[in-house]
Amino acid sequence: MKKNYIGVPEILLPAAGTDLASWAVIACDQHTSDLSYWEALDAFVGEKPSTLRMILPEVYMETEKDYSARIGAAKTAMQTYLDEGVFRRLPRGFILVERSTPYVKMRRGIVLSVDLEAYSYRHEDAAPIRASEATIVERIPPRLKIREGAPLELPHIMLLYDDPGNTVWAAAERQAAEIVYDFDLNMGGGHLRGRLVTEAQPALDAFYALEKGGMLFMVGDGNHSLATAKAAWDKLKGSLTPQERETHPARYCLCEAVNLYDAGIYFEAIHRLVKGVDAEKFTAYFSSFGSGKGALYIGGRRAPLGVSESAAEAVAETDRRIAEYLAKNGGSVDYVHGEDALAELTKAHPDYVGVALPKMDKSELFPRVLRYGSLPRKTFSMGESAEKRYYLEAKEIR
C-alpha cells in the first residue's frame, strides 16, 4: 500500500515588502518565566505585521487568570491578515530551511505537513509519527481553545527523522529552486534562509525508505502543539463525511522535519525551576539522594546533586521527588533552558531553587523510544532557547 502520511502543503508566507525581522517570532512556549523578553519583543514589533499577534505566548498563561481576550485577538489577527492580503500563497511544495544561530553554523530542516491520522502520543501506540516524551493531556484543553475556529496554523513543531546518510536532504536539495526568505531573526535568534521545492517526490521516496519498526518521525519540539492539532482534528472529523475527511486542511499539520544526525542538532537538558519554596528546606530534602551528575542552584550558587547518569532516568527521578515535595509543602515548577539562566533566576528570587539535569546523547533517542516508548516529559531540548523554531510559515486549516 502506498504511504501518504507526509503531505505537500500550500504554504502561506508574508507578502513581498513585509519586514520579516518583525514578522517572525520565537515559539510561544519559550521564556515562560521571563515576561521582560516578551515585553521587549512587543516593543520591537510595534505596529508592523507579526506572527506575535497570532499566537499566545505561554508566559501569559502563567501570569494572567483570564487570557481569553488574547486568544480572541490572535484569531482576529489571523483573519485580518488574510483579508488584507498580508499573506501570499506559494505553489504546493516543501521549504528547505537553513538556520544559523549563535551556537551552530547551520541547521537544516524541511517544512512539510503530516497526516494527524498517522500520529499518536499514546505510549502504547506504534504509529509512524510518535511523541518522544510523555504528553500531559491536561495541557491540551487551553491550547485547543486557541486552535478551534482559527483559520490558520503557525508551526513551531520540529520532527526528527533518523537519516545517518543524509539521503532526504540530498534528494530534496537537488530539486530546490526559488529562495523565498533570507533574513536575520530578532532577539538574537540568528539567520534564516528558505528555498522552495515543488518537485517533492524524490524527497518523499527518501523519507519513506527510512521507516523502521513502523516509525518514521519522532516529535523533537512542540509535542503538545501536535497533540492539540490531533485533538482538534479528532473533534472536527466527526462532523465530516468520509470524503471530506480525506481532503480537509485541518487533517494535515505543518511541521519542520530535521535529521537527527544534522550537525546543527544537539541535545541539551531541560532544567527544573522550583518556585515558592523554602530554599533551605527543599535543598535538605533533595540533597538526601545519592551521588550523580546533577546540580542544585540556590541564590545563584551551585551545589552537586545526586541523580542517575541516564538522562531519562534522572528526569523521572527528579520529577517524582519534586512532585512529592510540592504535594506536601506547596510551590510550583517551571522548565528552564540553560544552566546560566537557571542560576540567574535563583539569584533574583530567594524562594526559587534550580535543579540542573544531565543531557541525553541524541544517538540514544530512536532506539530507546522504539524499545521502551515515550521518554519522561521534557527529558531533552534541541539546543538553546534562542535556537527554537520561529513562527514564519502558515497553513490554512479551515
Give a quick summary of the entry.
This protein is of the alpha+beta class. Helix content is 31%, strand content 24%. Strands 1, 5, 6, 7, 8, 10, 11, 12, 13 and 14 form a ten-stranded mixed sheet that branches. Strands 18-17-20-16-19 form a five-stranded antiparallel sheet, with helices on both faces. It has a two-stranded antiparallel sheet with strand order 2-4.
| Biggest sheet architecture | 10 strands, mixed
Structural class: alpha+beta
Q: Helicity range of the residues? A: 25-40%
Number of strands: 23
Low-pLDDT runs of 5+ residues are: none
Count of discrete domains: 2
> Overall mean pLDDT score?
93
Helix segment count? 13
Q: Radius of gyration over alpha carbons?
A: 21 Å
What can you see in these coordinates?
The protein has 398 residues and is of the alpha+beta class. The protein has two domains: 6-266 and 384-396, no CATH class; 270-358, no CATH class. The protein is built from 13 helices and 23 strands. Strands 1, 5, 6, 7, 8, 10, 11, 12, 13 and 14 form a ten-stranded mixed β-sheet that branches. The protein has a five-stranded antiparallel β-sheet with strand order 18-17-20-16-19, with helices on both faces. Helix 5 (140-147) packs across helix 8 and helix 6 packs antiparallel against helix 7. The longest helix is centred in the C-terminal third of the chain and has 19 residues, at 311-329. It is globular and about 60 Å long. The model has no long low-confidence stretch (mean pLDDT 93).
